[in-house]
Amino acid sequence: MRTVLVIDDNPAVGTALDLLFGLREIRTLHAATPADGLALLARERVDLVVQDMNFSADTTSGEEGVALFRALRAKYADLPIVLLTAWTRLETAVELVKAGAADYLSKPWDDHKLVATVENLLELAEATREVARFRDERRRRRKALADQYDLRGLVFASAATERVVELACQVARADVPVLITGPNGAGKERIAEIVQANSAFRSGPFVTVNCGALPSELIEAELFGAEPGAYTGAASKAREGRFEMADGGTLFLDEIGNLPLAGQAKLLRVLESGQFERLGSSRTRTVKVRVISATNADLPALIRDGRFREDLYYRLNVIELRLPPLAERGDDVLPLAEHFLAGAARLDAGARAALLAHAWPGNVRELKNAIQRAQLLCSEGVISARDLGLTLARASAVRGGPEAEPDRAMIETALKNARGVISQAASELGLSRQALYRRMEKAGLRGEG
Length: 449
Hints:
single chain; alpha/beta; Rossmann fold; Helicase, Ruva Protein, domain 3; 4 domains; five-stranded parallel beta sheet; 14 strands; 13% strand
């Protein structure tokens, strides 16, 4: 059951809140002094604290409440705390909210507002715990993967990347071709390296060829080698192809969709028999190579257009690993950014928000370039959103930035819609409670609770 601890020297307050919260199936514990409250917290599971600001007779300074709040925050950093104020100066409560208090309400309180605030905070606390449990479980799974497999130093935190990595590790030992699909710059080669590092071919060479970076007339010579004079401009001595270089190891064929049809036929033969001939030679050579291919192209569409062999597609696509774009792996953005910085600079809050809001059409490659550029432009080792130079849509603008800044009318409307409940109004505006209080002060507005 959800549990609220009320720390107040007035027994009537504890009784009233016990009745009020009991109607919502919320268990209420009561402590008359800060010491009793801290002792209760040490032995009971509590989801939220409602605390008074004064505990001694004829005391209205709020210093006792400030000391209690600090003691609670020091020991229970994530515990939501609601302040009940009577004679205490409003400025004191506002300062505590800025320091992390969830909200404050004046005595005598409005039952509806108090219940709404407590219910919202309890729901938020439960959601926060679920997220924390989920992240802890993900961290444990990632650690288990890293302990069991060689992940080649891959940096990731998202569930989407974890699924791809886990599958790559599982299929690595099977001696079958693997096709990695996904957009340019997403990190397909890193996934190929993980497959190779955990395969039976891990002690062999890892040879890469970009089929999209070579003229079509040279691709066959690049893959299969060539004898002297086999084509115009050929070298005067025999040329070893990539398949021969990769013998006993792994050949990574990037941009496989760009391979011409003649090369596709030869590739199909190698995949089926391990045999091929160099250009200009009739001697058949045999190799043992694990082939991993990658593409950002729609291979089934190329098959329909007659530009890619269907039989080769099914031979390459025994196992497909689809690496999503970075836009679908939001949890990877900040860890990757920190990795690229390598401690040489620090991201401020605005920069972090900008990185998370950006769509990253260029994927990981674009992120790396943005971080390198910002590192050169930043001052005193701190990167701001301005240094990143990212174009943000209004809907996902940096929180607190010029486009997202709420004016007085927007704040008043949000407060009205939330019936004065600060946490609800802040959520509507996309702000934290502390940020909303600062803007209310600036606009000369006062909350009702």
